[in-house]
Amino acid sequence: MADTEDLTDDAGLAQAVNEVIASLPGITSAVASALATGAHGSTACHATTASTASTASSAMNPTPPPPDGDEVGERGPGDGREAGQDDLTEINSDDENDQLSSAHESGINSTEPLSERSHTVVSDSSTENGGGGGGGSTGSHGSTLLPWGARKERAQFPATVHIDTDLRPGEFVMRTLFAEYTVMAEKKIETVMQEPIERSLSKSLQRGEDATFDQLLLAFGCVAEHCLPSLLHTLFAWYDRQGVEWGSTDSKYKQDPSKSKGVDAGSNVDRETIQERRDLAVEFIFCLVLIEVLRQLAVHPGHDDLVRHIEDIAFKHFKYREGVQNNPNGENINIIADLYAEVIGVLAQSRFQSVRRRFMAELKELRAREASSVTTQSITSLLMGMKFFRVKMVPIEEFEASFQFMQECAQYFLEVRDKDIKHALAGLFVEILVPVAATVKNEVNVPCLKYFVEMLYSTTLDMATKNKHRLAIFPLVTCLLCVSQKTFFLSNWHYFLAMCLQHLKNRDPKMSRVALESLYRLLWVYMIRIKCESNSATHSRLASIVNSLFPKGSKAVVPRDTPLNIFVKIIQFIAQERLDFAMREIVFDLLSVGRQIKIIMTPERMSIGLRAFLVVADSLQQKEGDPPMPRTVGVLPSGNTLRVKKTFLNKMLTEDTARNIGISAYYPLVRKSFNDILKALDSQFGRPLMMTNTQNVNKEPDEMITGERKPKIDLFRTCVAAVPRLIPDGMSGRDLVDMLGRLTVHMDEELRALAFQSLQNLVLDFPEWRHDVVFGFIQFIVKEVGDTSPQLLDNGVRMLLQLLTAWRNALTNSTTTTNANKRDPGVGDLHHLHLHQRGDHSDVLRLAEGFALVLLCSCRQAPRRVAVAIMREVKLLAKALSEEDPINHPVIDVMDKWCGSVVEGVLSLLPPGERSAVAATTTIDLQWLADRSSSVWTGGFLEDSSVKSVSAQHLVCEDVWALVLCGFILQGRVLTSCPQAVNHAWPIVYTRANSLYSIVDPTPPNDNRASLLRSATQVKKPISERDVYMNLWRNYVVLACRVVPAITKTPVIRCASPDISLGSSPESGATGEKGGERPYPGYSVSPLCLYKLLVPLLRCDSSDMREAVTLALGKINHFALSDLMEELFPYIRESIDRKQENMRRRRRRDALRVTLVKLFEMIAEQGTFALSENVIDGDTGALLKRYLEYMEGARLYLESENDKDNTLLQIKTHFCHFVRKLIGSFSLEQRLTLIPRSLRKGLFYLFASWSGVFGAPFGYKSPDSGNRQPSEFELCALHASSAVLCCGPSFDPQLLADDGHIYQWLDALLGSHDEKIYGLAQETIVLLLEFNPDSGAVLDWVVDRCYTATPEVADGCFNALATVFSAREYPCDHYTAIMNVTLLHTGSPRATIHETALQLLQVLDKRFFGAVTPLVGDAEERRESSTLDVLLSSTYSRSQLYLSKQLALLHPELTMPMFSEISYRVQTARCSVRQLLLHYLLPWLYNMELVDPSTPPATTSASYCQYYGENGGGSAGLRREGWGSAEATEMVLNNLFYITAKLGEDHPKEVEELWAALCTCWPNNLKVIIRYLFIITGMAAAELLPYAKRVVVYVGRARPDRLVEELMAEMGTVETLNCVIERTETPPFFRLTSMRKTSSHGEGGCVEGSGAPQEQTPSERGTLHTKRHSGDHHDLPRERYSPLVTREQRSAPGSLRSVSSVGSGVSSVIAVDSSVAASTAATTAINVKSRPNSSLAPNSLPSNMQEDLNTNNVEVVMPQEDNFAVLRAQNNNLSGTPGITGGSVATGIDDNSERYEPPQPHPLPMPEYGGYFAPLTEYLPDSSQPITAFHRQNLADSPLNSSC
Fold it and tell me: What distances in angstroms separate CA 139 from CA 94, 125, 135, 979, one per listed residue?
């Protein structure tokens, strides 16, 4: 390409780039003085530079290159070397730029520049145009798009650097590249200046040290093809700007070296030395750029000025500098000279003649000088400047020109006399000729080359015989022969070959090495280029060579201490043409084929033979052809490499492959010998040198691998590296994997790496080996790598993780996957390896998970992290293998799922910092746990570099990590979801724990003692070492107890130190049971071994060991619990034995008792007893005899021991905990028969005696009782007593009687201010109710305390009540009491109680009143109303009164039961509760219509029509139907009058509201009230008249007009009452027994009273009574209750639905029948002194409102008449009007006669058993005293006077 057609004009681009350079800040100088060329500020560059990969890619390569390559120096992303000439477009004008921009605008390359990946890009505003061609607008100097379609974007550079994007693409690229170059160069120079002065610059600046800078250099090389002149001009400008001064310090070091280091040197020398180091760094960077860009000089002819400038700079550096050897920078000065020599070598490739002329001119000048040492050194330096000159083989003209130059130098070589110059020239010739010899073929016939060889050969051969020239001339003679013609070579080489063979044994190692190198280059020419001679001649030559190199009978090779690869190459050269000779005569002899190998005597010879065989086989298999000639120079000074890395095959060499490549005759013999060699090496230098051996601890590898061992270790390395390429014949696959696994812990680091690499290759390339390798490697780690070698263990588990990752990666590769499915044809020949004897893939993966579980026991962070990674890798691998198992879930998934719950379980044990970390973490998984490094997670273990420590305290109960492990291995978690992994974990964890026990064992066993006690008199290990591993051992045994299987009938071998067999077959895996018994999987480790190890340690005197074992056994899984108990049985019997013994034995036994009871407590706390199938007797449902015996024995022992010893206190405390947790672990159903009643009774009173003040109700006195808080022990005893009491039905029926002591005890608990005790009280009440449903006394007491107790106690009782009734349909006959107490607590001022009451009210409503109820709406229509829960949902925040009103409206049939209940409760309730009761009683009285059928209907005035509207909640003018009966009237008036007399003074307002509500709701109520007041006042005027007056006042305030009317009517009557009142003991406490004269008053006679039992007059119409019976429920159809059905239609006979509680079997039915009498009225005797048992109604209630009765169709014949019947009969008889009672016509009365029939209310159901009548007898006279009849006028006058 012509230089006149550069990308941009050279001069213009150079000027533009120079402007950039001028605008850059100066390079930071480390010296104090400023540089001479200008001030250099200390402007450190902080900008983030662009990636050179991105620059090069965006500069020259439109498409990203492939990510990797095969050869060394491979092209990285975007280096642009593959870009062809056609890919690079020249742009000479703006029009062409626009054209390109429009072409790329269509999306040819839409990817953004790669530079965005490594630095921030600031887009220029000009690039935001609509199209890519916007940059080509008028007035613009360049396009906004680069030629490859990317936008011009300004990178981040220092503030002084500004690169305008409005440039041509070429200028933009060059400016950007140079800006990046200057910034990076400045950084690199700053880095070099900060390094020590003696550090070589090559280590910091040469190629390969900085990949980013290397990519930038490649980018320069790419763009140099287009703009090399401008690039060089700019580079020279940058170089000149640095002010480099070459040789400025030489004068300082020409003096005596001793003076240069003296005081005179001073700080100036140091400053100048640093300045020179900076200059050298600039030179280094400058040379690197020159070497890269000058490779493009061939496409830029001309530019002689630039070439001369480069030559001037280079040859200036070739000048000899005196004193350089004394200069601290001397080494770097020589490096720079070599770099310029490399520059000249590159320059000579395109400008050879110019370089030649300059070199010859320089040489001529030096030759003209006077001979001296300086002249000699100068010529030598000049010659070294040409050592990188390379002969161009094509075209031939260049080849000839090069050798003409060589002839000139040869002539000088012949003429010069100076030995040093001759040797320098010889060295130069060798450097130039070796590459020629490697490639020369027909060129040897070129005359100039022939002449050159002939010119020098004879002279040099003569010189080679002289000692002074031999070292320098031998390589030259070799090179001359190598480039000579065939005839010349064959005729002359034998003489020189003899010289080489002779000098192989030279004592000078340099000479012997030179002779060997000459030999193998000559042999290459002889075998490869010339292709040998005749067979006999060739055999003779080769035999002489082989005998010289490998003497017969010798153990070594000749020469000694030589790199073995030279011998390998010699064999390879021979095998290339004479394969059989190489194998049989050389390799077989070296490998001792056919000879028995017991001891390795010739390690070097064997290594050479093995390597040679592999190299030859590899070459044949890869069909590489002739091997290349060996070369000497590997790396150039710049860092560029000339050596191509050879890639060898790893694929297994099989018999088929050997047959195909022609080595089948040698292959089997080599494999057998290889097997013998490996076994011998393993036995001698493998096992003995493992780092796990105790004798190798604290020994350095250098100490062990010295002398004779070193070559044998080298042989071992070679053999291990040969696997899997070569598989030994005679060694099974298992043995091979085991051996490679052992070698991963060998003392030799290289051998460790090779062994693991072989294992990894087996996994990567051979599917048949994969699971065997993983299986064997895990087995090796478990058996060989102990926990006392943490570094080895860490390395081992990391290697295991890498093997699993390699396996998965191999599967993801499509080729490997295909190979995995298609069996390798060669693997079939390896039947002797016995592969696949260890289970399938799934079994191996489960084994890896089991091993990872064991790794989690570690106290260190590293193994835990790797364990999590292994679990995750196994999951991915199983997915790749399609081995997902529905039974065995991935362990990592299960543990991640439960991680949050596990951490929450130990949260209370964490310090505040860790709690904050937990709270701040959104998702807690196993990885998060493994990353925790706080000491609380590591059991106190701290690891800081080499310092290891453990916390001083070993609080086993607070060991967080052990509890975390147990939290995962639970039923329903890992134990159930991952059974196979758990089975595999068992033998592993036991083996680890058993091997570590020797370290942590506090005492040696004392065989002389019969007792199992272990003494702590002698310490076996240093305490520090033991402490480090104690926590780890504890974690091991804890996990072992969690995963130990149950012992089955399978015969096993009991062993103390088992040799585990990790699953020998697929059958060893877990079966697919689901939560059932986990069978013993068949490992050689019996679970009995674990118990034999741990159980005796329960008596260990070392507290930390004893506590660790207790913790572990306390975590035993439920499968193995019965096995553990078998081992513990002798200890249990000993602990409950109460025989007399001395103090020493007693203390030991007490220690055993403490340990055992703590153990049982932990097992109970874990819930293991409840989960185990062998704890409860299947016949009785009770605990097995062994457990009951222990509990009984412990009880008897503790009852008899009264000492205040601390040990006894511990036993008592833990025993309390044990019993409580044992009972708590079982379900409520199981507790019914869990413990016999006698044992429960004994335990309860035992615990009660320990409860301090809480034992007082049972007669136990606390010695120091007072106001003190109960101790922890007393609290434990209290909890235990509660647990025993609530473990089934009461053990003593008298305990729950009405006067039982248990109620005092519960009161004491509820009265406690301790929240725990208060909660315990509630729980106890709940369970008492649950387990004793047939004992009504408990429920009665709970309900009663809700009214009578203090608010705290009442709240506790109500909460317990709510818990019971919310959980299920509790069998209860007290539903009205429950409804009432719930309604009471809806008025609680405490929000929690209020909410609980509301919720319970909804539950009870759904349970008791599940159907809808008709209700009159606001409008004049009937609507269907929902039940209470729907109303509550919209009235949740309504008041208690509102809720009571809703209940009264929805369920008026509850009126009398509720009134009766409230009347009873108000007597005993505390004052605040009494006020609430009276308050919400009001709405129920709105339903009550007092019944007196003899009273005529009230006048139909508007006021009476509005009574209900004003007070009942309805609308004005709307009359509702009432509810009432004679019995209800008697009860309401009796109870209300009693409340007035008893509580009127305390609650006057509430009582007045009640009377007002009763008299205003219904018109006749007032009349009935007044009549009742007349009767009751007449019975005891002195006592009751004040209260009657008070009632009149209340009534008068409510209805004054109506009251006056009634009283005035009575005052107008001048006769006495027409009946005799008798005092009775049964409610209503009076009876009308006889009739007097008839009354003239039209209203009839008397108020209601109780009729005589013997009288059988007809009853009132529609009176309903209830009775208890068993039977089916008869539900009425929904239509019966519809508002659309008339009253008459709804009056048909039927029954109301009753909802009965589950379990009671008793239902209450309110029935109406035309032929059956319902009940007697109020005949139940009431004991006024004590609470009646029937005061609470049964737990049943009709679901709908009571129907009206059809008066025309229903006849009710009552067996008994009430007082109203008597009065009505009297009135009717006297007035001549037939008596109408309840719709029945009296005998002898005509149905058709006209009669008055007052409207009757709905029949009102009475409470069951008659309800509660208040004991009004307190105010009445004795029944024996007669009652005087009062005149009605006088009776009316008294109230009137009081009201006035």
Answer: 10, 16, 10, 80
| ∠ CA 745-750-754, rounded to 5° | 80
The rounded distance, in Å, linking the Cα atoms of 313 and 235 is: 13
Q: What is the pLDDT of residue 1821?
A: 82
* Residue 1617 backbone class (left: φ over 0; alpha: ψ -120 to 50; beta: rest): beta
Q: For residues 613 and 668, is the Cβ–Cβ distance under 8 A?
A: no
Angle between helices 373-384 and 419-439 in degrees, nearest 10: 10
Estimate the share of the chain in helix, then strand, then coil, as percent rounded to the nearest 5: 60, 5, 40
DSSP state of 441: S
* Contact indicator for 1335, 1295 with CB cutoff of 8 Å: no
* 731 close to 675: Cβ distance less than 8 angstroms: yes
User: Which residues touch 794 (CB under 8 Å, ≥6 apart)?
Assistant: 862, 863, 866
Q: Which amino acid is at 550?
A: F
Residues 1604-1637 have pLDDT tens digits of: 888 887 777 666 666 777 888 888 888 876 554 4
Q: What would the DSSP string read from start to end of 403-432?
A: HHHHHHHHHHHHH---HHHHHHHHHHHHHH
pLDDT band at 34 (very low <50, low <70, confident <90, very high): very low
Q: How far is CA 1768 from CA 68, 1231, 1624, 1640, in A?
A: 119, 62, 21, 14
Cα dist. 109→57, 104, 106, 118, 1330 in Å?
13, 7, 8, 20, 80
Residue 1660 scores a pLDDT above 60 = no
1047 DSSP 8-state letter = P
The three-class DSSP label of residue 1261 is coil
Q: How far apart are CA 1427 and CA 1804, in angstroms?
A: 21
1071: left (phi over 0), alpha (psi -120 to 50) or beta: beta
**Residue 980, Cα to own-chain centre: how many angstroms?**
21
Rounded CA gap, 876 and 884, in Å? 10
Tokens of 296: 């493009």
Whole-number Cα distances in Å, 1540 to 1463, 1552, 1603, 1814: 11, 9, 19, 11
| Radius of gyration (C-alpha) of the chain in whole angstroms | 56
Sort 1821 into a burial class: Cβ within 10 Å, 0-12 / 13-18 / 19+. middle
Tell me the C-alpha distance between 1129 and 1132, whole Å: 5
pLDDT digits (tens, 9 = 90+) for 596-644: 898 999 999 999 999 999 999 999 999 988 999 987 666 888 888 766 6
DSSP 8-state secondary structure symbol assigned to residue 1556: H
> Residue ranges per domain, the chain?
563-631+650-765, 1425-1818
With a cut of 90, say whether residue 797 has pLDDT above it. yes
Give the single-character DSSP code of 1698.
B
**Region for 1362 from its dihedrals, namely left if φ exceeds 0, alpha if ψ lies in -120 to 50, beta otherwise:** alpha
Tens-place pLDDT, residues 1718-1734 = 333 333 333 333 333 33
Backbone φ and ψ for 1802, nearest 5 degrees, come out as -60, 140
Percent of the chain with pLDDT over 90: 48
Please give the structure tokens belonging to residue 155: 């990178």
Beta pairing class for 1523-1524 and 1802-1803: parallel
DSSP letter assigned to residue 856? T
Distance CA 361, CA 1567 (A): 153
- Which two tokens mark 13? 């681009």
Residue 1761: pLDDT band (50, 70, 90) is: very low
Q: Is the pLDDT of residue 36 over 80?
A: no
Averaged confidence pLDDT in the chain: 76
Out of 567-581, 768-782, 922-936, 991-1005, pick the least confident.
991-1005
